[in-house]
Amino acid sequence: MNTLKRFAGxxxxxxxxxxxxYLAQTALKEIAKKPVIDTKIQWAVFVIVFIPIAIGIMIxxxxxxxxxxxxxxxxxxxxxx
Amino acid sequence: xxxxxxEVQSIRRIIAASSVGTLIEWxxxxxxxxxxxxxxxxxxxxxxxxxxxxxxxxxxxAGFIVRPFGALVFGRxxxxxxxxxxxxxTLIIMGSSTFAIGLxxxxxxxxFAAPIIVLLLRLLQGLALGGEYGGAATxxxxxxxxxxxxxxxxxxxxxxxxxxxxxxxxILITRxxxxxxxxxxxxxFNDWGWRIPFLVSILLVIVSVYIRLKMKESPLYARLxxxxxxxxxxxxxSFTHRSNLKMVLLALFGATMGQGVVWYTGxxxxxxxxxxxxxxxxxxxxxxxxxxxxFATPFFVLFGKLSDTAGRKWIMxxxxxxxxxxxxxxxxxxxxxxxxxxxxxxPQQKQINTTIKPIANSQNSVRIVDTKYFFExxxxxxxxxSDTVYSDQARTTLKPDVKLSKVLxxxxxxxxxxxxxxxxxxxxxxxxxxxxxxxxxxxxKIRYTSMSLPYHIGNGIFGGLTPFIAVLLTTIYTSDKxxxxxxxxxxxxxxxxxxxxxxxxxxxxxxxx
Lengths: 81, 513
Known about the structure:
The complex is a heterodimer. Chain A is mainly α.
């Protein structure tokens, strides 16, 4: 199970840039199709909000790949850096 | 014998006090959304581009972007000064902003100041909501015995749905109570009556503040404070310490993002789909949701209670799986119920009513043709076609404006209630146990901050954007009316995969750490 968790980490790392690429491409296409203020704001909000989340899933994938989720902490004493 | 009885009474008081406040906050937040069209006509006239811009900002910014910021601001405060005063503060901010929205003069009276004030008040609402939920859930969980944490916190979980229920109910009642004549009552509501649901909020908030003032600080937090073990920098500890950040990310991607899309698809998007795609009339599209919420709400408590024995993880995962598998057939069924082609028309009952209204300062007129079609089983479809009748008879309107509104017969109506009920059952599965689940993931000293952010990104951003993204998808891929469902299905699918792989099903016996 832990091996699977670690390998899936690669998937989450790749998912981040893919999501950013798809989002940016769709945003540009839709704004070009209908360049009114509503469209620009809508897509700007989507891009601004979802890019940090996409970075978040890459960090999640990195942690998974490093085996950080092989064992989840049982108490806060285990949650020290 | 007396001690357990006192404990039960005490925890009941705590749940009641916390839940009533949270319920009011959700009510306050949802009345703005439920009255978006009326508010837009009062404050954000479409003819003025700047006002329209502010309208878009009010819708997007407050509902989705500001909520996670509220989670950070008030979460930090809750971990620094305590749960009790923080969620008292969020309640006061939410209540006064809502009340103030009800008092703001319209665009026609004070011009641009109106949309700007409303936007600022809406931002305050979003901030307050971002801080409220984490506080209430943490407060109740920190009072609850370990074996009943899921059950006790599930009462907090009913409040979001009940807040929506209350907002829809009060709006419908107000809409019909302003005049004996129904049409006049609706006109009065659109003119000034919409302010009543906002103003009513202050009474609810005063009662709730009074109750909350009598509450004591969470015992776990109070002990930490006495021992001097509270966090000095909750934001830093929550999001820069790897050991905690990895749990925040796991909570977001393995639980809250899936929960958010299931929550909003089963309630908001379902209602919007019934009204705008199935073309069911204003009242029925709302009462269908009201009935479904009423029947499904006890299941929040049921699944919360079940999670105390079966664990939190699998109940949430099964809820997501059921949603992923059944959303398309369920929404497809909603479409087919409202499709008149499968029904037999009663042509003898067909009614046509034509009215012609002259256009001021013009020789032309507007012609409105209302046609009512009756079907076996009780469905009535009203088609309102309006076009311009030109004095120059050679000219005709190229594309008349056609509005459809369907009223369902009893059997179809209750079938729709049943379908929405099933979707809200999924909501209760993913949402009922999640407060206990989040509380158990993080240590007491940074719990408020740590659990609030993934919750509000999952629920506010992933969930809150569901209706917008789903509608957007239908405008990009126009051939499939159900294409909007791919957004919640994909998000819930990723969340399910991460949740199944990485989450554990263990119930934390001790959150006192």
